[in-house]
Design goal:
Protein name: Carboxypeptidase regulatory-like domain-containing protein
CATH class: Mainly Beta
Number of strands: 13
Shape: globular
Structural class: alpha+beta
Organism: Caulifigura coniformis
Largest sheet: 5 strands, mixed
CATH architecture: Sandwich
Helix content: 10-25%
Number of helices: 2
Order of helices and strands: HEEEEEEEEEEHEEE
CATH topology: Immunoglobulin-like
Distance between the termini: 90 Å
Length: about 140
């Protein structure tokens, strides 16, 4: 075998192993993101915008998505930090006071403003359909 034949044979083996290794890795990307849809809305409590609430959409199967209401009560669901949306299908929705975990006097004084029927014992449901979804929640404190 000449030097050039040996190089050609070695090159073919390298190409084969690179191709085989690449195809083996293609299935190792982790779980795929399910089909998502954009979900936005407004949360009111006793007819007024409800800021600083955590809105959690919990599907029958799979990962929940969360959003936090702004000063106007508006929220947008996030499936992952950099991936907006919620999975398609039926969800139990839990809305609770959003508490930043720190030792500030504000955090220590924070208390749940939302009745249990909207969070721990939630009666809220929503169905996420393909395309943009606007889902508003009108909560009552009594």
């Amino acid at each position: 075998m000449t030097m050039s034949e040996a190089r050609g044979s070695r090159w073919k083996r390298v190409c084969f192993f690179v191709a085989a290794f690449s195809s083996a890795l293609s299935g190792c990307g982790g779980p795929e993101t399910p089909e998502l849809a954009d979900v936005t809305g407004v949360v009111t409590l006793d007819g007024r915008p409800a800021p600083d609430l955590l809105v959690s959409f919990n599907p029958e199967k799979g990962r929940a998505s969360d959003g936090v209401t702004d000063k106007d009560g508006k929220y947008r669901q996030q499936y992952l930090f950099d991936t907006p949306g919620a999975t398609l299908g039926k969800h139990v929705v839990k809305i609770t006071t959003y508490i930043v975990e720190d030792d500030s006097p504000e955090a220590l004084k924070a208390r749940e403003r939302v009745p249990q029927r909207y969070n721990r014992k939630s009666e809220l449901t929503a169905e996420v359909k393909p395309g943009p979804n606007v889902i508003n929640f009108e909560l009552k404190s009594k």
